């Protein structure tokens, strides 16, 4: 193996909502250009339901270590080292966008890591045109978009979602955001998704509003996996938990024991 291909995990900083001694546990993995803090609404809701809810900053984001490489496999290696405070498996792991892709890879490689996956508009496979759009959006988010700009782009977002999203983009490494696109060429973890054996649900936005998971991708996994469920959150785009939080939380709670 080329030494440069080796995966070197880093220890991720985390935020916790709820009682660390709770028997029920949840982990949420944010998307590109976000942070643990951007998971606040889902984590707070689960904590109110009795979960110990944990969210990390991914490598290159927030106060997490900076590294030389940002492949989905690297993100996956980092999060797979996270375990509930009392040990064992996470009752549910929730991932958004590249965080969902990373959770899929982590679970496929460590089948005891989680008991259930919830994928919020997962970026499992995107083409080169979309990769270019993602890169452009990350540069804008890091260097251009401020609170008024995000409010204009997402007028229905909660004020705190706007605030923490701007903070998250600013606190991330721009180089890391760019490399997360460059290092994932091709960007495709479908083969890992095909290996999943635990209940897996995709809660997604509408294709016309910017969803990254629709059409053939959905059909393929529905045919490939026995325990796979797909649901569209009406009126949501790529960030269902911010675009339509109440509807997303209702769908999420309906899935959990």
Description:
It is built from eleven helices and nine strands. The protein is of the alpha/beta class and 257 residues long. The strands form two sheets. A seven-stranded mixed sheet has the order 1-3-2-4-5-8-9, sandwiched between helices. A two-stranded antiparallel sheet has the order 6-7. The protein is globular, with a radius of gyration of 17 Å. The termini are far apart. The mean pLDDT is 96.
Summary tags:
257 residues, alpha/beta, seven-stranded mixed β-sheet, two-stranded antiparallel ribbon, 11 helices, 9 strands, globular
Question: What is the strand and helix layout of this fold?
Answer:
Elements: E1 14-17, E2 24-29, H1 40-48, E3 51-56, H2 72-80, E4 92-96, H3 98-109, E5 117-120, E6 125-126, H4 128-143, H5 147-153, H6 159-171, H7 174-182, E7 187-188, H8 190-193, E8 200-204, H9 216-224, E9 228-232, H10 240-243, H11 245-255
Parallel strand pairs: 2-3, 2-4, 4-5, 5-8, 8-9
Antiparallel strand pairs: 1-3, 6-7
Q: Could you give a quick summary of the protein structure above?
A:
With about 260 residues, the protein is of the alpha/beta class. Helix content is about 40%, strand content about 15%. The protein contains eleven helices and nine strands.
């Amino acid at each position: 193996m080329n030494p440069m291909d080796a995966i070197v995990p880093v220890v991720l900083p985390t935020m916790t909502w709820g009682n660390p001694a709770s028997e029920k546990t949840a982990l949420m993995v944010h998307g590109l250009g976000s942070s643990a803090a951007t998971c606040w609404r889902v984590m707070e809701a689960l904590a109110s339901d009795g979960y110990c809810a944990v969210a990390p900053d991914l490598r290159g984001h927030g106060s997490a270590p900076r590294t030389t490489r940002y492949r989905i496999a690297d993100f996956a290696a980092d999060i797979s080292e996270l375990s509930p405070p009392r040990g064992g498996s996470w009752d549910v792991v929730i991932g958004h966008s590249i965080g969902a892709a990373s959770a899929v890879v982590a679970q496929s490689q460590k089948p005891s890591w989680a008991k259930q996956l919830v994928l919020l508009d997962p970026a499992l496979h995107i083409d080169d045109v979309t990769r270019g759009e993602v890169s452009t959006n990350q540069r804008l988010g890091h260097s251009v978009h401020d609170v008024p700009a995000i409010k204009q782009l997402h007028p229905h977002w909660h004020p705190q979602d706007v605030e923490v999203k701007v903070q998250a983009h600013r606190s991330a490494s721009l180089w890391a955001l760019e490399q997360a696109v460059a290092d994932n060429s091709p960007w495709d973890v479908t083969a890992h998704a095909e290996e999943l054996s635990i209940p897996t649900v995709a809660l997604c936005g509408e294709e016309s509003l910017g969803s990254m998971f629709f059409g053939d991708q959905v059909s393929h996994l529905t045919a490939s996996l026995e325990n796979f469920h797909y649901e569209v959150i009406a009126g949501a785009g790529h960030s269902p938990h911010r675009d339509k939080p109440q509807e997303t939380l209702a769908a999420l709670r309906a899935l959990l024991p």
